[in-house]
């Protein structure tokens, strides 16, 4: 009998590449944009990609639960729950920029155990399963281990973020300013791409002030198996925290000292 994590990881990798085919068929084609109740954008690429992933899960692991950004939650009985973000970075996709990805996460009994982060335009995939390490593959190259960097001072680090406005929405522009001040280099390489940069040692810290469970679940095993930490601004491991940080092991406490510091009165 195959390992249940290995079998589900293989499906997740296959499903991510099927989602790529769908997403790229709409990329830079002037796709129509709808608005959700929270005013965030959604397109036929988001919806069609999630439908394709769900179909594969239903075919091969029909007893698993599924939570997806576009189509909500489907109950299951196996103890496994898939958590799907078919197109993380829809705004980037709409604008024709390539730093968006597909996130497929898997929980077992409430713990994040598998994660796949795939970038359709870039041809990059980063993935992990608990106890099997994290891996990084670019197009037809052989996979290599994904490992966080060993940089130990903020002055030598690269800090990535999605938008400045997100820090403003939660009233923490002070944290953004402090990160900009202390980190050696700051770049707005956002959404899941910034987290993948940390997992592969190309950046040291990615800070998101606003995240949903489907933005987080796939990243937890990837970052942790790569030797880093994925955590909330409070330092907890909770996909429902509403925010998130990916950081290498050496800088964890220094970053938390910034995010946990109360803003000036």
List the helices and strands and how they pair.
Layout: H1 4-24, E1 34-35, E2 41-42, H2 44-60, E3 65-68, E4 72-74, E5 80-88, H3 90-94, E6 101-108, E7 111-119, E8 124-129, E9 134-138, E10 144-145, E11 158-160, H4 164-169, H5 173-182, E12 185-187, H6 192-199, E13 205-208, H7 213-216, H8 219-225, E14 229-231, E15 244-247, H9 252-259
Parallel strand pairs: 3-5, 11-12, 11-13
Antiparallel strand pairs: 1-2, 3-4, 5-6, 6-7, 7-8, 8-9, 9-10, 13-15, 14-15
Helix pairs in contact: 1-2, 6-8
User: Which CATH architecture of the largest domain?
Assistant: 2-Layer Sandwich
What's the helix-strand series? Answer: HEEHEEEHEEEEEEHHEHEHHEEH
Number of alpha- plus pi-helical segments? 9
Assigned CATH class of the largest domain = Alpha Beta
Q: Could you name the CATH topology of the largest domain?
A: Fructose-1,6-Bisphosphatase, Chain A, domain 1
**What's the total count of β strands?**
15
Mean pLDDT: 96
What share of the residues does DSSP label as strand, in percent?
A: 25-35%
Key attributes of the depicted protein:
single chain; 265 residues; alpha+beta; Fructose-1,6-Bisphosphatase, Chain A, domain 1; D-Maltodextrin-Binding Protein, domain 2; 2 domains; eight-stranded mixed beta sheet; five-stranded mixed beta sheet; 9 helices; globular
Describe this structure in words.
With 265 residues, the chain is of the alpha+beta class. The chain is built from nine helices and 15 strands. The chain folds into two domains: 4-145, Fructose-1,6-Bisphosphatase, Chain A, domain 1, CATH 3.30.540; 154-259, D-Maltodextrin-Binding Protein, domain 2 (3-Layer(aba) Sandwich), CATH 3.40.190. Helices cover 32% and strands 25% of the residues. The strands form three sheets. An eight-stranded mixed beta sheet has the order 4-3-5-6-7-8-9-10, with helices on both faces. A five-stranded mixed beta sheet has the order 12-11-13-15-14. Strands 1-2 form a two-stranded antiparallel ribbon. Helix 1 (4-24) runs antiparallel to helix 2 (44-60) and helix 6 (192-199) packs parallel to helix 8 (219-225). It is globular. It starts with a helix and ends in a 6-residue tail after the last helix.
């Amino acid at each position: 009998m195959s390992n249940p994590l290995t079998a589900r990881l293989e499906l997740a990798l296959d499903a991510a590449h099927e989602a790529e085919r769908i997403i790229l068929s709409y990329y830079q084609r002037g796709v129509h944009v709808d608005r959700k109740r929270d005013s965030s954008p959604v397109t036929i690429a988001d919806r069609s990609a999630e439908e394709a992933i769900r179909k594969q899960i239903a075919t091969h692991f029909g007893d698993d639960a599924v939570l997806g950004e576009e189509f909500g939650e489907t109950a299951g009985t196996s103890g496994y729950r898939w958590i799907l973000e078919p197109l993380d970075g829809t705004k980037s996709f709409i604008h024709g920029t390539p730093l968006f990805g597909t996130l497929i996460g898997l929980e077992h009994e409430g713990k994040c155990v598998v994660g796949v982060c795939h970038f359709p335009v870039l041809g990059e995939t980063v993935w992990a399963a608990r106890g099997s390490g994290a891996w990084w593959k670019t197009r037809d190259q052989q996979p290599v281990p994904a490992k966080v960097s060993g940089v130990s001072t903020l002055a030598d680090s690269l800090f990535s973020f999605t938008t400045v406005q997100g820090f403003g929405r939660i009233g923490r522009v002070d944290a953004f300013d402090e990160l900009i001040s202390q980190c050696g280099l700051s770049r707005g390489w956002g959404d899941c791409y910034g987290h993948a940069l940390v997992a592969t040692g190309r950046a040291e810290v990615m800070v998101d002030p606003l995240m949903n469970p489907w933005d987080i679940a796939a990243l937890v095993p990837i970052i942790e198996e790569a030797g880093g930490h994925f955590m909330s601004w409070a330092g907890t491991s909770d996909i429902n925290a509403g925010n998130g940080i990916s950081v290498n092991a050496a800088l964890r406490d220094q970053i938390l000292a910034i995010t946990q510091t109360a803003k000036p009165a």
